[in-house]
From TrEMBL:
It comes from Massarina eburnea CBS 473.64. The keyword Lipoprotein applies. GO terms for molecular function: 1,3-beta-glucanosyltransferase activity. This is 1,3-beta-glucanosyltransferase. Residues 397-427 have a biased composition (Low complexity).
């Protein structure tokens, strides 16, 4: 299944007073913040496997926030509980709104949130990566962090989603990695809980492994906390997948958590046989679970339910996934995780990997970013305005970890600069409807020109 061009969407407010919380007042479920140990997630001393779905009712037709609507959230949480989920992924939020109620309902159900921090107007545009990586963009990203760091059930942040969706667009990788670095630095500078930050890659065989290695190579200050990718290669009625087995071998020495940010091939009637493979003992040492694409039907035949005038109707896929998850518990013990490991080797430039920067080199932080580290992001922009043309096409570079904050105190960016264009040809862009169902990738071309890597 090919690219979805979904620009991971999101943005949430920091330092902005919200309306009084609508969250239920009853005792919450025991939500323990999840941490990273070696190549796995842990909930306290217990290995944590993501058992979730991708959740974005309405799709890309309207960039709305599904977890700002308390009533629909409460309704859907009951369905999440029935499925036996512990995680949902949301691709976009309105950072000017309050989310206490929904995050409370999720917490009561023992469900965590994996959140994309970008939005259609605040994201890395693969047609102009240098220009779209700028202070205004990072302010929106940091505002999202400000708003969601307070919730113990905020599982992780995605720094980008499917920004690279072919060979040429791999030139955007340094800007994704720079955003990842800046997010972790902001979390450290503001002395927040160390919420994991990482990237969600497209289902592109040509450079998926290169991207994984790139996000885990170089100095510690520039390496991701985890890596995820979208994978639709295992299709029912197959009981096994040689493709997934080979990928597990390819990633056998990977030293940070790895999971599937989208899966669930729909070429045939879905019975979700992939669930037994993903949570089986043979993959447990490498993978930390995954998220099924997707909760609601958005016109691409991937939905588990249909939502019409606020009413939810379960499709056959809902029952099939519920049965598959119930019949496949997560592995016991630690699943054979690796408690330690080495950084990956940075990929070299090739026909499939279009990165010119040195291993210890990334785009320098834009001027003014240190102010956010010191004082916070300020008022969140919501889903209005935009940042994609707020920067310059001139590429300023620095050491990969320059500007990174690893001790909770700010440091100053430094390094040499170089001129050049970070723009990719707009004609090469593709994007499906929201959250990008792979089978409909050919249906949407215009959206990616606007969103770059998108969320659809």
């Amino acid at each position: 299944m090919k690219t979805s061009a979904i620009a991971a969407m999101g943005a949430l407010a920091a330092g902005v007073s919200a309306t009084p919380s609508m969250a239920p007042q009853q005792k919450r479920a025991d939500i323990t913040p999840v941490t990273v140990k070696g190549n796995a997630f842990f909930q306290g001393d217990k290995r944590f496997y993501i058992r979730g779905v991708d959740y974005q009712p309405g799709g890309s037709s309207k960039a709305s926030d599904p977890i700002a609507d308390a009533d629909s959230c409460k309704r859907d949480v009951e369905k999440f509980k029935a499925l036996g989920l512990n995680t949902i992924r949301v691709y976009t939020v309105d950072n000017s709104k309050d989310h206490d109620a929904c995050m409370g309902y999720l917490a009561d159900a023992g469900i965590y949130l994996a959140l994309d921090v970008n939005s259609p107007n605040y994201s890395i545009n693969r047609a102009k990566p240098a220009r779209s990586y700028n202070k205004a963009y990072l302010q929106s990203v940091f505002a999202t962090i400000d708003a969601f760091e307070k919730y113990d059930n905020t599982l992780l942040f995605f720094s980008g989603n499917e920004v690279i969706n072919d060979d040429k667009s791999s030139e955007c990788a340094p800007y994704v990695k720079a955003t990842d670095r800046d997010m972790r630095s902001y979390i450290n500078a503001r002395k927040y809980r160390k919420i994991p930050v990482g990237y969600s890659a497209a289902d592109v065989a040509e450079n998926r492994l290169e991207m994984a290695n790139y996000m885990n190579c170089g100095p510690d200050g520039a390496r991701s906390d985890f890596f995820a990718f979208n994978d639709y290669a295992w299709c029912d009625p197959d009981k096994t997948s040689s493709d997934w087995e080979q990928k597990a071998k390819n990633f056998s020495s990977y030293s940070i958590p790895l999971f599937l940010s989208e899966y669930g091939c729909n070429k045939n009637t879905r019975t979700f046989n992939a669930v037994s493979g993903l949570y089986g003992d043979s993959m447990a040492s490498v993978y930390s679970g995954g998220l099924v694409y997707e909760y609601s039907e958005e016109g691409s035949d991937y939905g588990l339910v249909k939502i019409d005038d606020g009413k939810v109707t379960e499709k056959d896929d809902f029952a099939a996934l519920k049965k598959a998850l119930a019949g496949t518990p997560s592995p016991s013990g630690d699943g054979g995780y690796k408690s330690s490991g080495e950084a990956s080797k940075c990929p070299t430039k090739s026909d499939h990997w279009n990165v010119d920067l040195k291993d210890d080199e990334l785009p320098a932080q834009p001027d003014g970013v240190k102010d956010f580290f010191d004082n916070g992001a300020g008022k969140a922009p919501g889903l209005t305005g935009g940042s994609q043309d707020s920067g310059s096409d001139k590429v300023e570079t620095a050491g990969a970890a320059d500007g990174a904050v690893t001790t909770g105190a700010s440091t100053t960016s430094s390094g040499a600069s170089a001129s050049g264009s970070g723009s990719a040809a707009a004609g090469s862009l593709k994007a499906p409807s929201f959250a990008a169902a792979p089978l409909v990738a050919s249906m949407v071309v215009v959206a990616s020109t606007l969103f770059g890597a998108s969320m659809l």
